[in-house]
Write the structure tokens for this entry.
Amino acid sequence: MSQTNNLTTQPIQPAALGKRMLIGGGIALLVILIFVIGVRNPNPAWGKLWMIRPLIITPLAGAMGGLFFYFMDKVLNQNGWKRAVTLILGVIGYIIALWLGTVLGLAGTMWH
């Protein structure tokens, strides 16, 4: 009796990984810019440079969401309906990462 191993893993492609992380961080930067630019009269208790924290943390969280999406899409290479499920889970994971990054970035200022 012999065992067969049907598990195959694809190598990580740094260019594709970096592209997904840049796209995820760029989308997150656009989202947080909408919130930050919309503030006309910031609360003086927030400090003079209050917008630096959300402009750093949120794109980092978006890049991590892009990393998650890459791994869901490429590493869990599926066919048929399983591929659709992994893509949906990747998008949901990205949205959760973006939401958490927005909350962490705006905590203490616009997010009470």
In short: The two ends are 63 Å apart (CA to CA). The chain has a mean pLDDT of 88.
